[in-house]
């Protein structure tokens, strides 16, 4: 197994894992910063996590694209397309979350900032759901369709 053929499997775990953890973290930070008086700079943790998830989603998506053609040789198009579509939705949602957390951080009006914190938590749940769906479809490629048997030829 060459490095590229295993990189996608490696790359997906960081953004997926962080996105599952993010709603809890964001909720805790929103409550502490928005309602308990903790220094607003603590929200930078949410911003950092959101941007790492987004960056990881782009790396995972790019590495998946590189493996796609090799998988086309042995796997039907429908499951590959379903996984790719879910991954695209996940990546788009991570972009929205990264921007929303950043806007919340730079917002000066406390009332609006709190609304953006709440919106960030809600969107973090949507990102987590998208991550779970993408992972489920990716797992199906491996365990139901034998994706590990078909590797790209470089």
Walkthrough of the structure:
The protein has five helices and no strands. The chain has 154 residues and is mostly helical. It has one domain. The radius of gyration is 18 Å and the shape is elongated. The mean pLDDT is 89.
Q: What is the global morphology? A: elongated
The structural class is mainly alpha
The radius of gyration is: 18 Å
Helical segment count: 5
Q: What does the average pLDDT come to?
A: 89
Count all strands and give the number: 0
Overall number of structural domains: 1
Report the biggest beta sheet as strand number plus sense, adding barrel if it closes.
none
Stretches with pLDDT under 50, minimum 5 residues: none
Q: Strand fraction band? A: under 5%
Distance between the termini: 12 Å
Order of helices and strands: HHHHH
The level of helicity is: over 70%
Summed up:
By secondary structure, the protein is mainly α. It has helices at 3-11, 13-35, 44-72, 77-106, 110-143.
Secondary-structure blueprint:
Blueprint: H1 3-11, H2 13-35, H3 44-72, H4 77-106, H5 110-143
State the main characteristics.
154 residues, mainly alpha
